[in-house]
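Schema walk-through. Below, the input block comes first and the output block second. Nothing else is stored per chain. Lengths vary across the set, and this one has 296 residues.
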Amino acid sequence: MKTYKQSLGANIFDVFNLILLLAIAFICLYPMIYVIMASLSSPSLLMQHSGLLLKPLGLHFDAYKSVLANPDITTGYANTLFYVVIGTILSDALTMMAAYVVSRKKFPLRNFFNIILILTMFINGGLIPSYLNIQNLGLLNTRLSQILPVAVSAYNVIILRTYMTSIPVSLEESARMDGASHLRVLFCIIFPLCLPVFAVITLYYAVGTWNSWFNAMIYLTDRSKYPLQLFLREILILNETDSLINSNAASGIEQVQISETIKYATIVISTVPILCIYPFLQKYFVKGVMIGAVKE
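--- output ---
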């Protein structure tokens, strides 16, 4: 068995490429590292620190204790999990059925619905008509206002539709000859073949719902229905950390210092759960991204 030795230029390129990729990886990961280390640091030492932060400045968990003890964070977590689970399931089901319909070449209104689908990506009614629509439907200040308006993404439907059109028609025809209905064809034949793309779309919906806060700010007035990201906005942008700071804490400068670590701890707590989803969907995500890249 022959072994091939790389030339000196190829070795130099590999070393340079490795260094470059490591530098890019560090640049991408450093903001996350900084937030985690800052959330574990002493408030007073953190305020005095400048430059890179690669380790905690004194190990303190007071910020996490303050955040986890706040009832708003617990309420936000529960609401966000509800919106993510129910919303993602509904979005996946509607997207799958819509993509199946517009991908069938024998469907007479296929081109019409494809045009309507694409037009929704260019034409938007605007905030005021959307608000009036939600109001007329009686969805204001309800949990459904966080699920129904964003239940289907035209972009995701087009992605799934494009992949479904690449599936051989003979599979559907053979199933139809055996007496299978459209629903059976969809869920027993098409769905297993679309699993990689479907996993990617599920990830898109879950992450989008988890990070959503604008619709809640517009349509919700009851704080018991607020998602986690809306409470996070109050803490980070509106600087409302008073409810998270222990009443026994010192006033003045120390409260300002503690509020900074609380902000970082809140970011970590609100980000970690969604990051835990990626390892389970990674293999499907890679397959979904690479679909169509290699032709046989």
